[in-house]
Amino acid sequence: MHIVILNDDALPTARGGAAVVVDRLRRAYAQAGHTVTLITTQQQHERWEEESDGAGRIIRLPIRTSLRNRHRLCTGNPAAASHVKNALRELRPDAVHAHNLHAYLSYESLLLAKEHTDRTILTAHDTFLVSFGRIRENRRLTLLDHLATAGRNYSPFRNRRIRGILQKSKTRVIAISNTLASFLRQNGIQIHAVVYNGTAISATPERTAIENFRKTHGLQGPTILFGGRIGADKGIGVLQKAFAVVRSEIPSAQLAIAGNRERIEHSVRDTQGIVLLGHLQQPEMLLAYAAASLVTTPSIYLDPFNLMNIEAMAAGKAVVGTTFGGTPEIVVDGETGFLVDPHNTERFARALLTLLHDPQRAHLMGEQGKKRVSEDFSLEKQAKTYLALLDRE
User: Fold this and answer.
1) N or C terminus of the chain: which is more exposed, having fewer CB within 10 Å?
2) Which range of residues forms the domain containing residue 36?
3) pLDDT over 70 at 393, yes or no
């Protein structure tokens, strides 16, 4: 089966979790014996760029649409449509697996895919099928919600057009968590299935490599790891408040933050005990997990999944996660970590301190997390489920 994957951006330049999921899936599809082509975009040159690796072809289309116009153009982007149409005509896919389309490729790509196959699925990685920004509550949105988020960029016909495209193209929408599925259904999107993201359980890095990583980054005390897309909605502010409480009880504690250094520096108020790791590639992230005492994912919005949850668990680390979004579907409170409302500084700090004071308990929770990933969040299970969906109309 020739599977074409559509996603607005791709590794190594992309920073979002969707690009990581896409890269893992295309490699898993190729390993399962399928021909795989990834269609994505680039904004540096005016011509197609193409490369091949062990997982198949990667076609980067030259689409330079301003992100300020994405709400208006996400249902139909002439600059993208001609390129996507030509690429699909050349590739003649048996099945199409679409991911993020709202920034550059546009949902019109689903209609173009329909000209070649009836086997098209769209994985919703976030709420942007219906929302104009990040959402804090799992409920039906109102016009006032949209206006408050989008302001002058509000496009009144966008959501109706998206639903029309999904229906006309017969695209089956897949959500990455039950929480996201619930939100999308409340807002008019039919969900065909829920498929959790997956990851592989890698071997623990050698002790020497871990020690060198800690030495390089100045990690000397008990270490809390936080990372990903850095911003207020990911909980950087509430985490700093909780960490201040942690430091008052354990002065040697450190908070290691992995991610875009400029965004982190803009968000961090008090640098006492905070170590900025910068953006880390996957091999370095494995070292970061191994060097940490525990991991925290304190999002304060409807974060549908947060890959860091399963990656930390796969690395054998206990997770102090948020009660918002999809994290409660992943982290089992009291078993693989703790679930807290990050706004409650005292409870958040106490959960962190409990694991820092009791490394043995943190280790046992990490082992339970690793077992849970192997059973419920493996890349093999994720890919197998998607391939079954792609193999039928």
Assistant:
1) C
2) 2-198+379-390
3) no
